[in-house]
Amino acid sequence: MLQGPYSSLDRDRPLIRLPVASFTVATVLLPLTGFIACLFISLIYHFEDATYTHCQVSNYLPSISAAISLVPERYIWRCCIGLHSAPRYLLATAYFNFYRGRFANRLPELLLSGLALLCNLAENTGLLLLTYVSSTETYSVHKNGFIVFIASSLLHMLITCRLWQVIRRYYVNPEEVTSYRWKVRLFLFNVSCCAAAAYFFRRHNNYCETGVYTLFAFFEYLVVFSNMAFHATAVWDFGNKEVMVATPPEDKRY
C-alpha cells in the first residue's frame, strides 16, 4: 500500500494554534505601532504641513487626521488598520458567543450582548472608513467615519462595563474581576479625554489661540490609546482560550 507524506493524524492537527492573549496583543500592537510611526514621521519630516490649521497659529502636535493623511504615513496607517480589522471582527464575534454562554437565561443581558456586538462592528467599520478616506480627500466622509467610530466606541465601552458588572456579581474569577476594574477605569478615562478634546477643539475654532490645537491633539491621542487598552483587556477575558485554524476530521468530509 502506498503511504502519503502525511498520516490522517497529521492532517487533523490544527494548522495554526495561537493563545488568545498573544492574538490580542498582536492585534492591538498593529494600530499602536502604526500610529507611533505616523506621528514620528509627521513630526520629523512634515511638521509644518501636519500642524497647520486654518487659524495659522503656532501648534506643536498634529491631529490624528493630519498625521495619517500625508505620504507615506497614509499607507503605513492603512496597512496596519487593514491587517488588524479582521482579528477585531473575529474578537467581536468571540465576545458575543462568550456573553451568550454566560447570559443564556438572562434576556436583558442577552439583548445588551447583541447591542455590544453591533457597536463593536460599527466601531471597527467607522475606523476603516476614516482610515481609507483621509481628511484631505473627502472631509465629510472622513468626519462621519470619525463620528461613527467615537459614538459606537463609547457606547460599546458602556455596555461592556455593564455586562462585566453582572459577570463580577455572579462569578469570582480573579482575572474577570481585574478585567472589569480596568474596563471601568479605561472607560471613564476615555470619556474624560473625549470631553477635553472636544472642549479644546471648539475653543481652537472659536478663538484661534496658540497651542490650543496642540492640547486637542494630545487628548485625541489619549482617546485612541485608552481605546486600544480597553480592547487589550481581552487578555484577561480569554486568558486560557486559543485561536485555532484546522481542517475538518477525515470522516466528516463530504
Automatic annotation (TrEMBL):
Gene Ontology biological process terms, A to Z: GPI anchor biosynthetic process
UniProt-listed InterPro entries: CWH43_N, PGAP2
The keyword Chloroplast is assigned to this record: no
Recorded superkingdom: Eukaryota
Alphabetical UniProt keywords: Golgi apparatus, GPI-anchor biosynthesis, Membrane, Transmembrane, Transmembrane helix
Membrane-topology annotation of the record: Multi-pass membrane protein
Domain (CWH43-like N-terminal) ranges: 22-240
Pfam families listed in its UniProt record: Frag1 (PF10277)
Localization in the cell: Golgi apparatus membrane
Example of a GO cellular component annotation carried by this entry: endoplasmic reticulum membrane
TM region(s), chain numbering: 20-45, 110-133, 145-164, 184-201, 213-236
Functional summary from the UniProt entry: Involved in the fatty acid remodeling steps of GPI-anchor maturation where the unsaturated acyl chain at sn-2 of inositol phosphate is replaced by a saturated stearoyl chain. May catalyze the second step of the fatty acid remodeling, by reacylating a lyso-GPI intermediate at sn-2 of inositol phosphate by a saturated chain. The fatty acid remodeling steps is critical for the integration of GPI-APs into lipid rafts.
Family, as annotated: Belongs to the PGAP2 family.
Alphabetized PANTHER family for the sequence: FGF RECEPTOR ACTIVATING PROTEIN 1, POST-GPI ATTACHMENT TO PROTEINS FACTOR 2
Name the record gives this protein: Acyltransferase PGAP2
